[in-house]
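thought: fold this chain, then report.
action: predict
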Amino acid sequence: MRIYTRSGDGGRTGIHGGGRVEKDDVRIETNGALDELNAHIGLLRALLGDGHEWQGMLKRVQEALMAVMSQVATPAELRGRNPNVLDEGLDVWCEREIDRLEREMGQPSGCFVLPGGGVAAAQCHVARTVARRAERRLWTLNREDEVPGVVLRFVNRLSDLLFVMARCEVAKGGGEEERWKDFLYKKGM
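observation:
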């Protein structure tokens, strides 16, 4: 089987279930953002190296994103036939990882930070921003075709997890975060 099919040369692409849509359809745009997020997480894994303690966690995220993309590629009325089942606790798993990392770090953020702090920390921030874009696209798709709630919650929590991971990388490296402003909305303004 060849990698190229020529079936997309006219500006349409296949979706799970056999249908075809325009290449800039919201479903395809959403999956493009999720795919980009997965690639950025792959780059983060490469930057961290094989022995890094986060490899298992990030691999689980990538595998979950593959299942998420499969579900997003499937119209709601056909999702029951999709063999790629989502773990309903993905959001809770992210919350536990966030809590664990914050305990290790010992200090909640409480402020906006400037992205950076080393290559791996900066890559966490890049992945976080792509996760936020993917989340926006998911909500756009949700207005047209219902997206499973676990997908919406997982991608939201994943961006938070990536933020905390960036902060951890800076802290572990002995660096200081460059803070911008306090979260006024969390302090009652």
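thought: worth noting. The mean pLDDT is 87.
final: tokens above.
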